Amino acid sequence: MCCLVKDRRSTGAILSKAIGALLTDCGVMDWYWGSKMEYMKEYEAHGAREVPRAEYYERLRRGIRQELRSDPEAAVRTGRALIEPRGGGVATATVAL
Question: CA angle at residue 9 from 36 to 84, to 5 degrees?
Fold first, then answer.
């Protein structure tokens, strides 16, 4: 017999941390999680912070030119991510700037 333990963790929080760990391991310096939500305050202890729009775009321009240690998609596909992809596939996205 088992039962769920009610605590503050959620699937979204766990996935956010797993994705953040993957991006950091691959050498990504900045990424955008969207508008700040109340639960995101806990990430400030790990270096997260809001930045002004102009600074964000400057950091994004620099980041596009930076060479990564490894490709995040390849890291997921080869099992180096904390969470395995579902169904053996990896969803990819294209970003146009």
Answer: 95
